[in-house]
Each structure stands twice: as structure tokens, then as C-alpha cells.
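Repro:
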Amino acid sequence: MMRILYSAIDQTVPSAHGGSVHVTSVAEGLSALGHDVHVLASPNPGAPFPRGTAVWWPVSPPFGDRRLRLLRVRQVIRRARALRPDAVIERYYNFGGEGILAARKVGAAAVLEVNAPVVDYPGSTKQRIDRLLIVEPLRRWRDWQCAAADLIITPSAKIIPPNVPASRVFQTEWGADTGQFHPAAAGAVPYERAPGDTVAIFVGAFRTWHGAIHLVEAIRDLRARGRHDIKAVLIGDGPELGRVRRAAEGLEGVTFTGALPHESVPASLAAADAGVAPFDVSAHAPLQWEFYWSPLKIFEYMASGLPVIAPRIERLTRIVRDGQEGMLYDPAQPGSLASALEQLSNPALRAQLGAAARARVSEHFSWRSHCQALERAMRAARDAHSDRY
């Protein structure tokens, strides 16, 4: 058994946001494996912390601004001194570092969970700021965080500084709760379907690079082809929602549900026929350099027994195999997303791909398998840390 302190103070828990789902799943997953897990996170005024076996402590960035996160370092160190953890996990942020500092204060192994580029990609705002400041404080600080970490967990090693030893980088995907997301998930479903419909579903935060507008455009394309049986359901909220709604005006068969609590999503997925993740890497500069994140929506689609429709991006081809667990389309080819939807109007093909998707995520991409692999990596990091100090 390890005592683990998890610093995720810029994440509001509970929340349907991917970061919140990630923190909750990792904390409760490690706790379920028998570890004593204590989490520092921002509380949600409208809902209590999860009632699992992990211990939750309310700590928020000053004024709710994550750029001020480091000002909570004394509070994090006090919690670490009280707990005396074997390891401290911190969700990486350039203006963070409180968990790494706390780990050093108490002699614990420092684990950095990296979900966004640490290195400067071409055109990076941080790089421009560093050049203006001459002494490059942002680069120096994030390089220090990586150098001080005994273990870095990331979906892509490419976003980690090249001077970090490969032995300290654990590349892994995130996951899905295969007990919560499954083909028979029951509950209220906020949309209707008629017999013979094929329902394609999108769940996301409606940011430009999530590409929700491309699903609406594909439905419009299908109507022009005379296909009225393929419908779209879009779940979520975000800055692009207004634009996507306007694109859908006058288009029959497109439903917007708004944001749903995360616990309400499994039933909505189970009632659909295909999960669409129309990522648009051209809309977000870092993604053009590297598709660096691990897409929770895809794992949850797969866990729900849905075939996945996604663009053919190198990272995604390692998760969803074209023609095996879903359909991968060429985003540069006009009409390719609509054609993939049309192919999946075949019930027998959907059933075959959906069953394979469920089997693949259960074996490789569940939160349980993620936490088991993380546990092994953290034990090794703890032992290596003990040998060094």
C-alpha cells in the first residue's frame, strides 16, 4: 500500500469536464487498488466530492485563477507533512509546481501528470513571452518541474522536453469507466429516435478543435444525398455551441441537449448507434504539431459498444483501428465524414464494430487498466527515489 497525495487544485470536482473525470477516475481507481489516496481539488458548490474511498480536500487556486496555483504551495506542503506520502502526483501546468515542491519537502517520489505540451511548439504563446522576457522564466520553470519529477505520465512523449531521461517517462493513454459506460446502460435519454433511425452522437466541450460543426455539415451533406434516416445528437456546452447551432438552423434531425451531468451520459451513449469525434487539428496550433491529448470521449464511446467515427490521425489510429473498431475518415476529403456515417447505417456492421470496440477498450483502455499500469510505474519510481536519497 502506498500513501498518495494528488494535487489537482485547478480541477473542479465533480464536473463533466474531462480533467475532473480524469482526476476522479485516477484517484478512486488507485484507492480501489488498496492505496491511501488524498486529493486536493476545487470543490463544486453545487455537488459534494465523490463518495468513494479516496479522501478529498477542498483547495482552490486563489480567486479561481489557475495561474495563481503556485500561491497554494504552503497549504499543499502542510497537507504533505501531515500525510507523509510515498508519492505526490501533480497535474502539470506551467504556473504550477506546488506538488513537486511538496514532494521534495517531505522526501516523497514526485509524479508529474502531463496532459498538455511542456515543450514549445511552433508559434507557442509561451515561447513568445519568454523571448520578450529574455531570461525565459517560463521555460526554466517547466524544465525544473520535469527535472525534479521522478516519473512523468503522459499520452505522448513528444510533448516532454528531450533532455528528460526516457526511463522517467511513462507513456500511456487515459481511459473509460467500463462499469459505468456499457451497452446496456439505463437511464433517461434526452432525445428521441424513430424506428430505422441511425443516431450518431457527439459529446464534448464545443471548442473549435472538437469539430462539432463538421458533424452538422455532414448531416447537411447526407440530406443532399437523400438520406433522412441518419440523425445527430450533440451533448455539451462551450464557446462554439452558438456557431454550431446556427450551422444547424433549418436542418431536420439534429438535436442539441446542452450540458449533461457526467453520470447521465452513459444512457445517452448506449441509446445511440455511433460515436463521432470529428477533431479538427487545423483549428488548434499545438494539435497540428502533435495530437497530444488522450480523448476520453472516444474511450467512452467504445466502452458503450459504439463504433467510433474519427479523422485519420496517427495518434488515433493506435486507439481505433479503421474497419475494426470504427471508421477513420480523411478530413481533407470533402464528404468523407458523411460517407463514414452512411456506411455505419448498416446495423450488422455497427454491431460488429461496436462489439470489437467494447472488447478493445475493456482490455486496453479502461481506467482500471490505466491505474494498474500507473501503480506499477509509481512503485518503480518510489523505489528508484528511495535508492537515490
